[in-house]
Amino acid sequence: MMLRRKPWSQEPGARSGCFTCRFRGGSRISSCLLTPVSLPLLLLLCFAGIAPRHACAADSVTWRSGRDLQQFLGENIGGAGLAWSGQELREALATLSRSPGIRVAMMLDRRVDPQRRLNLAMGNVPFEEALSRIAKAADVALCQVGSVIYFGPPAITHRLRTVAELRKQDIRELPPSEARRFAALKPLAWDDFAEPRELLKAIAAEAGTTIENLDAVPHDLWGAVELPSMPVADRLSIVAAAYDLTFEIQPGGQTLRLVPIPERVAIKRSYPIGKAAADVAGKLSEVFRDCKIGVAGTRIEVEGRIEDQLQIAEAINGKPIRKPSAGGAAATGDVALDRLRIDAFTATNQPLGALIKEIARRLQLEAEFDGPALVEAEVSLDRLVSVELKSGSVKELLDKVMKPYGLDYEIEGKKLKVRPAAKKKT
Questions:
Q1: Largest CB tally within 10 Å, which of 152, 268, 339, 392?
Q2: Containing domain of residue 306, as a range?
Q3: Do the beta carbons of residue 36 and residue 122 sit within 8 Å?
């Protein structure tokens, strides 16, 4: 189990042939190009100051939530990144989530082996990307419910956030006096050997309701969990989802019934567009293929998961579409590169090709050069270049590295493809 590591550093400009990169949060990494820190050294740095989960359990954590959480998920993790070598998954997540600089609540689905060994290393990437890589390494997927990152089987994480939102919609449709009973925000926490039936029973009681078929949940014992404050609907949804269940509010609002989560879950929303509604709907349909998108006059009607609805709302408001994959990882491309921010980058007297390869490596990409085309265009990858970017995105950095030297690029899958820039017509 690893926390964020303190980076080793070297003053910028200390010697020719080095580069310095300082990421958000003030962390700075300096190294000789194509001479990365060895993994054993990084792991040695990581082990310093680590405490087991039970030693931290008594310490209260002020979990990130709301805007603070969403902003943090998009920020780079800082320093030299993260690494685990043979740690148990549950312990790794517990330690990471409770780290003073992290404070992001995480939960592991009961169907995931908590003792699975995690072997993973990554550089300076956005925290949401780091979470996606952890999920991939553990052969699970993830989703966000309220302020909780939920790791579990893809079949459930694909639907859980939408299911929780649908239950909150059901509550909003109740008479105000009944809806208020479900509005209380309370932490979700329990000790080792907790019984999920009792957890569901207690949460329902807080809303003045009972669950009429608790026997739908098999007898089970869970390990200790501490999660932030959430409304009743989210707490019930998280616990019930471990058994592929959600709940229905029965007439009168005094009882709940546990029911299987449908294979397909979707939320309907309508967006005012104007005269271009048909054109916008067509473009969105090309990206959000799992959604049903139609046109009603000057509005578009969307039926899809809450994650897709949030992305569509941002796209309509002019933000780039960053469509997540089914497993929760962000798609690679210019949109993702726009979100990766760098506070400072300096490269001094570096071979152009080597510099591009190093940047690609740090982005978890493979640089691929169109050799014949570069020769024909008389572009030399051996020329020494110096680049400085005081603040900007990774895309801006790539543009600054390549375009002045007659190069263009594109991201295709996990490859950074480099070719000569198209000649301007005279």
A1: 152
A2: 267-316
A3: no
Identify whether residues 238 and 274 lie together within a single domain. no
CA distances from residue 107 to 205, 224, 287, 297, 364 in whole angstroms, order as listed: 23, 10, 30, 43, 27
The H or E element spanning position 160 is helix 154-172
DSSP string, 202-262: HHHHHTT-EETTGGGSPP--B--EEEEEE-HHHHHHHHHHTTTEEEEEPTTSSEEEEEEPP
Same domain membership, residue 140 and residue 22: yes
pLDDT in tens, 246-282: 999 998 889 999 999 999 999 999 999 888 899 889 9
7: number of Cβ within 10 Å: 21
When pLDDT is averaged across residues 328-338 and rounded to a whole number, the result is 41
* Mean pLDDT across 114-130: 89
CB-based contact 184:175 (threshold 8 Å): no
Q: Are strands 225-230 and 186-190 parallel, antiparallel or unpaired?
A: antiparallel
Residue position matching structure tokens 């993973």 = 120
Strand ranges for 231-365 from DSSP E: 245-249, 255-260, 267-272, 292-296, 299-304, 341-351
CA distance 256 to 207: 11
Q: Are residues 139 and 228 in the same domain?
A: no
